[in-house]
Amino acid sequence: MKLLSSWKRLAVGSLALFAAALMITAIIHAQTPQGERWLHVRVDGTVANGDMAHVNLPISFAIAILANVNHDQLHHGHINLGHADLNGVDVRAILDAVRTAHDGEFVTVKNHNQDVSVAKQNGMLVVHATDGRSSGRQSVEVRVPISVVDAMLSAGGQDLDVAAGLRALASHGDTDLVTVKDSNHTVHVWIDSKNNMD
Amino acid sequence: MLGKIAMGFLVVTAMGTAYICQDGFVNIRVEEYRKGGENHHLILPAQLAPLAAHFVPLRHLRNAERGLRDFLPALRAASTELAKIPDTLLVEARDHDEHVRISKSGDGLDIEVESPREHVHVWVPLRAIYDTADALASRLGTN
Fold this sequence. Notes:
The structure holds 2 protein chains of 2 kinds.
Chain A lengths: L1 H30 L6 E8 L6 E7 H10 L1 E2 L2 E2 L2 E3 L10 H10 L6 E5 L2 E8 L2 E8 L6 E8 H8 L5 E3 H9 L4 E7 L3 E8 L6
Antiparallel strand pairs in A: 1-2, 1-12, 3-4, 4-5, 5-10, 6-7, 7-8, 8-9, 9-11, 11-12
Chain B lengths: L1 H20 L3 E8 L6 E7 L2 H8 L2 H6 L1 H18 L5 E7 L4 E7 L2 E7 L3 E8 H15 L3
Antiparallel strand pairs in B: 1-2, 1-6, 3-4, 4-5, 5-6
């Protein structure tokens, strides 16, 4: 009887240990970010200057930071455009116009020697800008999913909800977001599921 | 009687040591390249930073209050989020003079600066960053 009781205790103890191990495994898996999206920024200088800067950040990290910064025009993930000097360009109005337009409709802004064209192609907001003033010509290409634009405009008023935009961006596949080229540097911003630049 | 006092002292010392060491250690290594340059290697209990934050005179904190109020929540969020991601190189920057690498490594942040003058390597536990930001926020009454 006593022996049986010991065996029972051993069995119950083993079961409890097994259950605890299962629970710990489940908790560890629950805490591991599944399908984390990464935001990459790559700035490469020319061979002559050799400058470079590479940034790899999980989008969830960027959202958490943005949501907690309260400085100047940035408040809890919102950027207020009310007082921003954008050379007379109403960014919010342009984004709204593109959002509601059909594919292929363009908004063109000419300002001094800068040409900026905004288009909607296959669910993407595409912005091309060239600056011919400087000796080295600079070109900028921005590609943003329209769902991200929707999310950014959801703040209303003069605010852009950047955190909501990042959340929307995180649900997209691999996307090239920004490419800037001038005579000295190349800048590339994109998202994918890798935590490195390879 | 003496035995009890010794035991009490031992327990308090052990608890104090456990408290000081609970966040791990900050590891600082500085190697100077100049002729006759010095090498320094410091290993400090990470808990000293939040502990020190509790004792910084309030007037010094008030000088930096605006910046601290704006960025302490972000610092806390950053350390919490970083703890969730795998080890990875987060930032790498190089110019003609310096090469900086910031990585998430284990439970901490690894910062390495290489220049023609020196090599600096710092490892800080994320928990210590959170606790320090928390202690400063608490002192400023922003918690």
